Amino acid sequence: MSALMQVLPYLIAAYVFLTGCYGLATSRNLIHAVGCLSVCQVSTYILLLAVGYRSGGTAPVFSDIKPGTRPLVDPVVQALTLTDIVVGATVTALLLALVLQIVKRHGTLDPDELRELRG
Amino acid sequence: MSDALILVALLLVAATATAAVAQRDPARQALVLSVLGVFLAVLFTVLQAPDVGLSQLAVGAALTPLLIMLSVRKIRRRRRDRDGAR
Amino acid sequence: MSRRLRLWLLAVGGAGLAAVLAAACLELPGFGGRSHPYGTRAVRASLARHTANTIASVNFDQRAYDTLGEMSILFAAVLGCVVLLRQARDEHRERPRPAQVARPVRRYALLVVPAALVCGLYIVAHGQLSPGGGFQGGVVAATALHLLYLGADYRALERVRPLGAFEATDALSVCAYLVLGLAGVLAGTAFLANTLLPYGTFNTLSSGGFVPLLNAAVGMEVASAVVVLLANFLDQAVEIVEEEAG
């Protein structure tokens, strides 16, 4: 149990990333592809937070604990993840806006049909 | 105890991520993504990252699915208008 | 490239990537390990500057320059969306018909809107003390406003959401962040260095020097960015119609 637990979170992050990539490559709908990309993004959050975790640690917020009394998890990776979640959402919005433009100009959501249109 | 909680949350996240990729209909995928957002928020909280959990809850469970739903609605309405005109 | 060939290529590439990733995972320091050198130093620096929430200290003090980059990405993405989703020449607006809303939905939504808004603002304001901050609180406050769309209808939402003002606020808050950074340069220290203001009493609202100010700027920017984004998508989904000219 414990030996598996040492690597399992990293393996899950890798699995989620590969699943997202599979969805991206086989998608027949651009909106579905954007959703798969956000699944890929999620894997980076899992990996980062798994790297920063410490067994028995507590959140690095001192509004209700005394500094130095408890072991803490790593705040740096949490700060990285936090900003990326919000910025990632706006980038997803930008991609969706591009998809809407493609539908307006070419009238299709299927990436394969788009390639045929271009010739 | 906390290891078991983390394990359960990780497996839930992996299962929902698979479901989100396997669901090919974008409107339904948006719903699965929102469930994924909630499970991720739980996982982050169990990993002692309440800040990140809060942000994931607001963005992953509400904002991203909402944007996807609005795009789907726009495209459906456009198709309906086109078909109605013909 | 045929579909079959592409699937084969994907399978080979995916298997290779999976093998490399698995090998990398086995070499990483074990999950839940005790050695976090950066974390320990970040906590020490945060305590030295009287910021109770270490994550806020990392975001708005120790790595404030990095957050400036994230803000610019956010701003650029919103700008791109506004440009892509603007009303084109061959499109026109159609007023959406007022919709019937079920009584309980209406009552619940109108009850929750103020509570959710206050909650969002609280999360922004207490960013340097408790879990939360500009990024999360901004999203909460902005999405709370859109409960009005559920509870009443689109026109009610448009009335409480002057879009021009939100676009201006978005730009102004990015400028505010820059100006706060430049204040350090003018005072003779470095860009975005947290040395100008007193650090205050630990665990009170005004502690942390520049952290609450930068936090508020980010909160305003994120909130108005999300409002502008959702407004553009809602316009496309509800109001803007293409003309049948072809």
Automatic annotation (TrEMBL), chain A:
Instruction: Fetch the InterPro entries from UniProt.
Output: CPA3_antiporter_subunitC (IPR050601), NUOK/Mnh_C1-like (IPR039428)
Its GO CC terms are: plasma membrane
Residues crossing the lipid bilayer are 6-25, 32-56, 76-100
How does it sit in the bilayer?
Multi-pass membrane protein
Give the top-rank taxon of the lineage listed in the UniProt record for this protein: Bacteria
Among its keywords, does the record have Disulfide bond? no
| Coiled-coil residue windows | none
Name of the protein: Dehydrogenase
From TrEMBL, chain B:
Where does it reside?
A: Cell membrane
Query: Has the keyword Signal been applied to this entry?
Result: yes
The signal peptide annotation in the UniProt record is: 1-19
GO cellular component assignments: plasma membrane
Q: Which Gene3D superfamilies match?
A: NADH-ubiquinone/plastoquinone oxidoreductase chain 6, subunit NuoJ (1.20.120.1200)
Under Pfam families, the record lists: MbhD
Q: Which UniProt keywords apply?
A: Cell membrane, Membrane, Signal, Transmembrane, Transmembrane helix
Domain named MrpA C-terminal/MbhD is located at: 11-77
Q: Does the keyword Transmembrane helix apply?
A: yes
Question: Which ranges does the record mark as transmembrane?
Answer: 29-47, 54-72
Highest rank taxon of the organism: Bacteria
For membrane topology, the record states: Multi-pass membrane protein
Task: Name the chain's protein.
Answer: DUF4040 domain-containing protein
Tell me the organism: Streptomyces griseofuscus
UniProtKB/TrEMBL annotation, chain C:
Q: Per UniProt, which keywords does this protein have? A: Cell membrane, Membrane, Transmembrane, Transmembrane helix
Organism phylogeny: Bacteria, Bacillati, Actinomycetota, Actinomycetes, Kitasatosporales
Checking Pfam families in the record gives: MnhB (PF04039)
**GO CC entries:** plasma membrane
Provide the family line: Belongs to the CPA3 antiporters (TC 2.A.63) subunit B family.
Domain Na+/H+ antiporter MnhB subunit-related protein, by residue range, is 106-227
Name listed for the protein in its UniProt record: Sodium:proton antiporter
User: What residue intervals traverse the membrane?
Assistant: 71-88, 108-127, 133-150, 171-193, 213-234
Location, primary (coarse class) = membrane
Provide the species name. Answer: Streptomyces griseofuscus
Compartment(s) of residence: Cell membrane
Membrane topology, as annotated:
Multi-pass membrane protein
PANTHER family according to UniProt: NA(+)/H(+) ANTIPORTER SUBUNIT B (PTHR33932), NA(+)_H(+) ANTIPORTER SUBUNIT B (PTHR33932:SF4)
